[in-house]
């Protein structure tokens, strides 16, 4: 981003001064979650979360549905890590959230046969367990009466992954 200024001196010469803003003297841009596509960020973050011992799918995860609007359990083997990464990003972007609001974010439309479909929430248990694991890993912190919000470690993780994704896309 550049700003242009005109300056009139006594001789009526116009001098254009160009000032570069948003970059420091080395030309490095601060990349955040907002600068990269969500899908690529979530997949890369899920790979990072697989290496963390505090985050692992529960025993029941391979058999459970993600909400009453779905007919089957997810078919991906690593869907738990993908959901945890998506929850981490969503809390980063939308601020403090509880499990009920997250369940609404991951909901869908329930098929009610011949009656009109109706919006329903997703699984609160999946959202709650993911948030508990992310909190025990140090990526989320609990706020009184507001749910959980992103911690400095979680923000650092997401920003570093965003920088990696940005560099990959730039090449």
In short:
By secondary structure, this protein is α+β, with helices and mostly antiparallel strands. It has helices at residues 38-50, 79-94, 99-105, 124-137, 152-170, and strands spanning 2-8, 14-20, 108-110, 118-120, 140-143, 147-150.
Descriptive account of the structure:
- The chain has helices spanning 38-50, 79-94, 99-105, 124-137, 152-170; strands at 2-8, 14-20, 108-110, 118-120, 140-143, 147-150.
- The model is unreliable at 1-24 (pLDDT under 50).
- It is globular.
- A hairpin with a 3-residue loop joins strand 5 and strand 6.
- A two-stranded antiparallel ribbon has the order 1-2.
- The chain is of the alpha+beta class.
- Helix 2 packs across helix 4 (124-137).
- The chain has one domain (29-170): Winged helix-like DNA-binding domain superfamily/Winged helix DNA-binding domain (Arc Repressor Mutant, subunit A).
- It has 5 helices and 6 strands, in the order ββαααββαββα.
- The longest helix is centred in the C-terminal third of the chain and has 19 residues, at 152-170.
Name of the CATH superfamily: Winged helix-like DNA-binding domain superfamily/Winged helix DNA-binding domain
**How many domains, as an integer?**
1
Uncertain segments: 1-24
Q: What is the number of beta strands? A: 6
Q: Calculate the terminal CA-CA distance, rounded to whole Å.
A: 21 Å
How would you name the oligomeric state of the polypeptide chains in this document? single chain
Q: Widest sheet: strand order?
A: 1-2
Question: What CATH architecture label applies?
Answer: Orthogonal Bundle
Mean pLDDT over the residues: 82
What's the CATH C level? Answer: Mainly Alpha
Structural shape: globular
Helix content: 40-55%
Count, helices: 5
H/E series: EEHHHEEHEEH
Largest sheet: 2 strands, antiparallel
CATH topology tier name = Arc Repressor Mutant, subunit A
Helix/strand-derived class? alpha+beta
Q: Whole-number radius of gyration? A: 22 Å
Beta-strand content estimate: 15-25%
